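In response to reviewer comment 3 from the previous cycle, which asked for concrete evidence that the modeling workflow produces usable outputs, we include below a single protein chain processed end to end. The sequence was submitted unchanged, and the resulting C-alpha cells are shown without manual editing.
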Amino acid sequence: MRLGICALCKQSAELQDSHLIPAGVYRALPEPGNAIRNPILVTAQTTVQTSEQVSDYLLCKGCELRFQQNGEDWLMRNRPHRNGRFPLREALLRSPNKSTIPMGDVYKADFDPGFDLEKLIYFGASVFWRSSAHHWNSYRHLVTPAKLPSDLEEKLRLFLLHENGFPTDLVLLITVTASKVWPLMAHPQRMKEGGRAAPNAYSFMIPGIQFRVIYGDIPDEMKGASVTLCPHAVLVTDHVQSEIRADAHGLRSTSRLVGSIATLLSNSDN
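The workflow returned the following C-alpha cells.
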C-alpha cells in the first residue's frame, strides 16, 4: 500500500492496488484445461499471451469497497459462466418490454427483478471514470488514453459517490451478447465511425457485455438507446462480438506472434 490522495473521495489514505477492470474479468478469460493459460493480447504490431492486468495505486479501501458493493460483486455473480449460465442475460430476456430492430432485440424498463440496471450502470460508469481520471502510464502497451472532458469526469466522480445523478450530457449504452459468449475483453478506447476514431465516444467490453459512452453533439437515436435516459434501453445482439473478432482477425496480417503463444501455435501446427 501507499499513502496518497484517493482519486474518488479526495481523502488522504492508504491507497490500494486498484484495477482498471476487475481482476475477476481477467480470470474469466482463459479456458480451463487449455494450453493457453493467459489472455491473448492482439495489436497491429504483436500478438502475445500475457498475465498482465492493468492496475495502479488509485483508491482508498473504502472506495474500493464502494465499487465492489455497487456494481462489481453483482456483475461477477451474474456474468457468463463456463457451465453456460448467463444470469444477467437470462433475467433481461424475461423482461416483458421487448421490441425487435434489424441489429437485434431491444429491452426497455420495467426490467425483470434479476436484472439490476442500477448496478450495471454504476459498473460501466466506474470503469470509464477510472480510465479518464488516472494516467495508466505503466500500461501504455495495453491501453490507450480514454480521456473524458474534465467537467464530465467530475460529474461521474460525484455520481459514483452518490452525490449527484448520472450526467445528463453523457449517454451510456449497454449491449448484451445474444447467443454464445466468446472470452473477449477490450479496455476503454475510442469508438470508430467510418473506420476513423470518433472524437466524442469511448467503449469497452467484458465477456458478454459492451459499454459505450457518447458526449457532445449526441444524435437523438443515441439518446433513445441510452440506459440512463427513459425508456432505459438495452440492446441484445451478437453484432458487437462479431465486429471485435473481425477486427482482431484483420490485425493478424501485420501482428507478429511473440513469446509463448508463438511456440504453442507452432507446436499445434506440427
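Residues 2-269 form one domain. We consider this sufficient to address the reviewer's concern, and the full set will be provided in the supplementary archive.
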